[in-house]
Amino acid sequence: MSLDRYRTAIVTGASRGIGAAIVRQLRIGGLDVWAVARSADDLSELARETGCRPLALDISHRDAVLSAMSGLDADILVNNASALVRGGLSWETAPDAIDQLMAVNIKGTLNCLAATVPGMKARGRGHIVNLGSIAAVSPIPGMPVYAMTKAAIRSLGQTLRIDLHGTGVRVSEISPGRVETGAHLALVEDREEGRRRFYDAFDCLQPDDIAEAVMFVLGAPQRMDVSYMEIVPTDQSYGGSQFHPRAR
């Protein structure tokens, strides 16, 4: 496994959780990494820790994304940025929540592709890694619109492989189950209750687990494209509908 063919990476949603873990692993691997998120303060701290290049940016704004990313000559794009808002029944999802999910999870991903894929094609080298979710393929109550956006990412990855056929640019989707990032706490009003409900009683995946999976697909031989990888906690059933609590 080697990343020698790659020089520069862009990671979105990089200020914390999975994104920050991916930045750390890529920097250990010797790559020049642009860490993208809206929080300049969090990015500055990550830059001091890892030596990454911070880029404070709202990826839902295409002109800003094209201006900031088009000249970076990125060999790797990790589309990790994702909104996760309070859910409920599909027909009761608040319009502003719908807008946020669509803006980040779908528009943001497409904007980043628009800024980076033309350069990858021209150089005949590149790898796009999309962070999906098991919610894309299995119903998980309370997250209908989020799941819809992740299903769109699933479809997008399959279409990208057709669009990029013969270019040498690889496309991978990593689809995790429950990862202990803190994002789930947005699903409930009481954060402590959220931690008890989603994390405390369960042996969840950790951000580093997903970062290591990203490094695996990037380091695979060029002849090999890990097109789809589903990763779930050992105690989470297929589809994610059931989670066995750990012994206290």
TrEMBL record:
InterPro entries the record matches: NAD(P)-bd_dom_sf, Sc_DH/Rdtase_CS, SDR_fam
Gene3D superfamilies in alphabetical order: NAD(P)-binding Rossmann-like Domain (3.40.50.720)
Recorded superkingdom: Bacteria
Keyword flag GTP-binding: no
UniProt KW keywords: Oxidoreductase
Pfam families in the record: adh_short
A GO molecular-function annotation: oxidoreductase activity, acting on the CH-OH group of donors, NAD or NADP as acceptor
PANTHER family with a match to the protein in the record: DEHYDROGENASE/REDUCTASE SDR FAMILY MEMBER 11, DEHYDROGENASE_REDUCTASE SDR FAMILY MEMBER 11
Assigned protein family: Belongs to the short-chain dehydrogenases/reductases (SDR) family.
Protein name: Oxidoreductase
